[in-house]
Amino acid sequence: MPDPVAHWWEGCVIYQLLPRSFADANGDGIGDLAGIRERLPYLSWLGVDAIWMTPIYPSPLKDGGYDITDFKSIHPDLGCMADLRQLLERAHRLGIKVVLDLVLNHTSVLHPWFQRARWAPSGSSERNFYVWRDRDDGYADAPVLFRRYESSNWEWDEVAGQYFLHRFLRHQPDLNYANPAVQEEMLAVVDFWLEQGIDGFRLDAVPFLFEEEGSRCEGLPETHAFLRRVRQRVDACDRDVLLLAEAIQPVQESAPYLAEGELHAAFEFALTAHLFAAVAQGRCDQLYTCLREAQNAVPGCRWALPLRNHDELWLGDGHLVSDAVVEAVCTGFPNAEGHWLNWGINRRLAPMLNGDPRPNTLLHSLIYSLPGIPCLYYGDELGMGDWPGLRDRDANRTPMAWTRDRAGGFSTAPDPLLVLPPITAPGYDYRVVNVAVQQQLSGSLLNWHHRMLTSRQQLPALRLGDFQLLESDHPSVLSYARSTGDMTMVVAANVSGTGASTQLDLGQWRGSRMREVVWGCEFPAASDSWFIYLPAYGFFWWLVGEADMVAEASEPPQPERAEPVAASS
Question: Is 112-165 in CATH node 3.90.400.10?
């Protein structure tokens, strides 16, 4: 049986979904909380442990809901507090936790705080809720994040007669965390959602809360001090609540968010970039270095591991990863050409990989077996496509494909009312790439994810184990071991498009039984020079040791099958 854990997020798998694009229960063309609630049995069957919902707050939706007008309410398109309570109740009955996106850094220009600030006198407490200057040359070393849309971090406001700071889009003014009143208001927001029963927060854009001249205005000591106050509020709650940081920074700069008394986990975006670079080049030497650095900085399973999400595949300006890694990704994936947005590639996973399921399953097998919290983006379990040409990042945010019915079973609304058009591109058409079809095909990508996640639930070593890199004499083969007190797993993966044979030094387990757990195949006993062959983009998970472990891991109990996928939510 799986080992007990101290906190629910240890060894968990998080499924990210966009409420407006996931499932529409009332037929208005927009996904909602009731639609998510109806689809929870599917997520339980899939094998995920938690869902992360992008912002559900009232918003003019100029930036996908990250431009907020009220932090303590729900957008009426999505439902009401009663709908959220019903969603939480059903999720918890199914053993699924609910994580909410919390945007600390900024608001919408339509937020009452900003409207009061722009009309208030300069220097007043209301004006000081935001960061104002008489000139637009402050914090010159802070990079412009949305460089496709903005040329400056400052915007002139006619009413205020001053410039306001916006590290994101010009309609998203930065809150002034140097003002104690702002800190108290945002802590009250945390308290409010804790009272509603939320199980965790994905903290958006945490590095940018405070500013300092002569710096990139990222991860300043004052920012970490405020995050420790957030942690104190969460720790005072009578249940486990996750704090997960979105900090798109190198490992050495994102590791401090995981210091004692601060946050529980942080996304490892540098590792994501290195995973894609390894597949692009067919080599894993730089990936080995990245994994060593991450484990040296923060040992254990506190890194969250996404492949894709609702934003572009962030590569950065040479600060997150080296220019060589950026170049490898950009040149190694021809389908990424022409899809660069701001600081990365604006494509979903499957189209970026040209629909090839082999690198797709390889990359997922790695995040499912590396130390950390795997994050699966909605639709990637199907190999869903995207819609290039839609506004901003909407290309990656189209409706979930549930059935072969019109609009993919996402909604019964007429096409003009749909939040975004469903995918109809050849090879990704929702009438073929959908949940209902793939559940019936044993060899589908969806059933592959179900099988891997179900196996992972029965393998404490993959979820919670110590991590040890194993050397390989083949440049395309990544190998490592995961171990708990009574279970050891060995993983090997070939990141290239050609077959690879190599020898692994398994002398520390010499003579132990080796069995591949997903398919139940027996391999020769471990030895000092253990020969293996891996096909193109191939991988294996081996269980080391006793026969009783083999039986348990190779035949995981099947959960109750998901409720049938209906034609409409």
Answer: yes
Cα–Cα distance between 379 and 42 in angstroms, integer? Answer: 12
C-alpha to C-alpha distance for 39 and 19, rounded to whole angstroms = 12
Judge whether 312 counts as a catalytic residue.
Answer: no
Q: Name the token pair of 222.
A: 């004052």
Residue 366 and residue 362: Cα distance in Å, rounded? 6
Whether residue 568 contacts residue 406, with contact meaning beta carbons closer than 8 Å, is answered with: no
What was the pLDDT predicted at 549? Answer: 46
pLDDT in tens, 34-90: 999 999 999 999 999 999 999 999 999 999 999 999 999 999 999 999 999 999 999
Strands 265-267 and 242-245: parallel
Q: Which of 467, 5, 7, 4 is closest to 263 using CA atoms?
A: 7
Which residue ranges make up each domain of the chain?
A: 112-165, 463-554
246 part of the active site: yes
For the full predicted model, state whether its pTM sits above 0.90.
Answer: yes
Question: Can you tell me the distance from the alpha carbon of 293 to that of 325, in angstroms, rounded to the nearest whole number?
Answer: 16
Mean pLDDT, the chain, as a whole number? Answer: 93
Q: Could you give the 3-state DSSP secondary structure of residue 448?
A: helix
| CATH code for the part of the protein at 463-554 | 2.60.40.1180
Q: Which of 77, 204, 253, 268 is catalytic?
A: 204
d(CA 489, CA 479): 11
Catalytic residue among 246, 312, 380, 381: 246
